[in-house]
Every structure is written in structure tokens, then in C-alpha cells.
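# step 3/5: fold
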Amino acid sequence: MDLHTCKLAISNRWIFLFLLLLFSMIGFAKIVVIRNVNLSMSPANANAYVGDTIKFDLESSHSVVEVSKQSYIDNIIKSNGGFSTPAGGGIVVVSSPGTLYYFCKNHGSFNMKGVINVRSIVLSNQQSNSSFSEVNIFPNPTKDVLYLDFTMKDCSDLSIKVKSMIGEDKLRTTKVGLCTGQEKVKIDASSLPNGLYFLEIQEGERRMYSNS
């Protein structure tokens, strides 16, 4: 039975996903630092994965606010209800894929703004005989629901488990009839207490384990 293993960390009801070395390791949750250089943001176009922490390390006269794409294009400093930092910056944890736009609250009129491109974590499957080529895992972090978006090469039945660090099954879902193309599986993780967990995806008759 092929086993594709990931790690989940739950803290304050948020679940963080860290990929292990079974297939290609896309990366661990990290800190992306954005600073101001005079009246510019650096980097002005930042890249991050879902679950990463964005740290705005700014001078005391600067703070940022998230705006809509249209406000960003029109140079209108109007909050869209998203993140906002106090003077000097702050911390933002990105929880879903997409593009985030922001302005400096005090100096947006000087075109002091930036973009954060947030990508989902993707587990690439290097096993040529597997029915799927990759799994897109989101949102990360999440409070209650985790989605697995499979890119299927062939039809197959997959069994998905969430296990504790000592190997106990905590959640299990079996999704039958996944076929060629994009297939999405929803996992309700709202019942899990804070802690670390492994996510296992099982297929076929052979079993494969990752290194922790």
C-alpha cells in the first residue's frame, strides 16, 4: 500500500501542514520579511506559501493595510477588511492561496504599496505507478476544514487518515471513485485538539513510509 505522509500541527485551533520527505519536499512554513526602504516596500512583490508568516519590519512612521485589487490599481487606500498592522509593522499569517494587496496607511499616496503572492502547498508524487501526480493541500493554516485537491492520472480509491504523533488514527475518510482530472476531498478537522498530526494518503497494496 503506497503511503504518502504529511505532518499537521494544530495550535490554538489552527492546523499547520508540514511536508515530509516521502516525495519532493516543497517546504516548511517560514517567515517572509517585508521591510521599507525609504518610501518603498522591499520586496514590493513577495512570494509565500499558505501557512507562512509575513513579518512587516517597518520604521515607526509606517503601517500597512490590506486593500482590494481594484483599490490597489486605483491607488485608493481603503481597507477591504483584511489584515492591518500598527505603526512599525506586525505579523500576518496567510491562510489561503491568492494575491494580497496592501498600502502604507500614511504614505500610500507616495505609491508605497506591495503585493504578496500566496501559493498552496503542493505534494508532488514521484511514484510513476501511482494514480495521482500531485496533491494541493489547503487552507494552511485552517481552523476546521482541510481540502486535498488531487491531480489524478487514473481512477483510484484512496484512503486518507489523520494520525497522532504516536501513530493513533484520529480521523479517517475514504474517497472512492476519484478519476482522471482534478478531484477534491474535504476533511473535517474541527474535532482535533491542539497538537501535532500526520496526514496519510494510502493507495493500492503496497506501503511506503517517509522519514520523520
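# step 4/5: annotate
The CA atoms of residues 23 and 126 lie 6 Å apart.
# step 5/5: archive (pending)
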